[in-house]
Amino acid sequence: MGLRIHFVVDPHGWCCMGLIVFVWLYNVVIIPKIVLFPHYEEGHIPGILIIIFYGISIFCLVALLRASITDPGRLPENPKIPHGEREFWELCNKCNLMRPKRSHHCSRCGHCVRRMDHHCPWINNCVGEDNHWLFLQLCFYTELLTCYALMFSFCHYYYFLPLKKRNLDLFVIRHELAIMRLAAFMGIIMLVGITGLFYTQLIGIITYHWKKVLQPQKLDLSCSHKYLHE
C-alpha cells in the first residue's frame, strides 16, 4: 500500500513546523559558513565531513516533509467491517463513525486515526499507524544532525587549529561568537527534546512487542489495513 498524502489545515501547526524549518536552515547555513568550509580550505578537515553534514541535513528535511504530509491512518467514513471482526470495532462518540479499537479521535484534525500515538504540532500532523515509522526516522535524523552540528561547534573552539584567513567584512564573521552561541543553544534544546521523545517512543514500541509475545490473545489486532478498504 502506497503512502497517501494528507494535509492538516492548522495555523498553529504551520507556525511550529516553520520554526523547525528555520532552525534547520540556520544550522545548515551557519555551521558550514563559519566552521566547515573555512577549516576545509585550510586543510584541517577532509571534504567527506562536509558531504556527510549535507547528507544528514537532506535526510532530516525529507523525513520532516514525509512525516508531515503522510496520512497517519485516517479512517474512511464507511469502512467495510468483516463480519467476524465486529467485536473489535467501536463507535466514536465524537464523529459517530465506527473505528477499530486502539484508534483515537484527534480533535485538532477532526477525525479518527488508527493506532494514534499523539498529535505532533512540530510536524503539523498526527502520529499514527501509517506514519509512525516516518516520525521515528525524523527523530533519528534530527538527533544525528544536532549531535553532528554541536560536535563541530565544540571542535571549532576547542580542538581545531585557529583559522589564519578570516574575512572580517562578513557579518557572520564579525558576530561569530553570538551566532554560534545561538546555534549551540538551539542545538542543545533540540537534542534534549528529541532524545526524550525518541526514548519514550522506543520504550513504547518495545513494551508493545514484549506484551505481544507474552500475551498475544489480549492484544487488539483489528487495526490491520485489510479491514479498512474503502
TrEMBL record:
EC identifiers of the protein: 2.3.1.225
Entry GO CC: endoplasmic reticulum; Golgi apparatus; membrane
Topological type in the membrane: Multi-pass membrane protein
Keyword Kinase (UniProt): no
Pfam families: DHHC
GO biological process: protein targeting to membrane
Keyword Transmembrane helix attached: yes
First-level EC class: transferase
Subcellular location: Membrane
Record field: catalytic activity: L-cysteinyl-[protein] + hexadecanoyl-CoA = S-hexadecanoyl-L-cysteinyl-[protein] + CoA
TM regions (residue ranges): 12-31, 43-65, 138-159, 179-208
A GO MF label: protein-cysteine S-palmitoyltransferase activity
Superkingdom of origin organism: Eukaryota
InterPro entries assigned to the protein according to its UniProt record, in alphabetical order: Palmitoyltrfase_DHHC, PFA4/ZDH16/20/ERF2-like
UniProt xrefs under PROSITE patterns: DHHC
Domain Palmitoyltransferase DHHC, chain residue ranges per copy: 89-206
Keyword annotations: Acyltransferase, Membrane, Transferase, Transmembrane, Transmembrane helix
Record-stated family: Belongs to the DHHC palmitoyltransferase family.
Domain notes: The DHHC domain is required for palmitoyltransferase activity.
The protein's name: Palmitoyltransferase
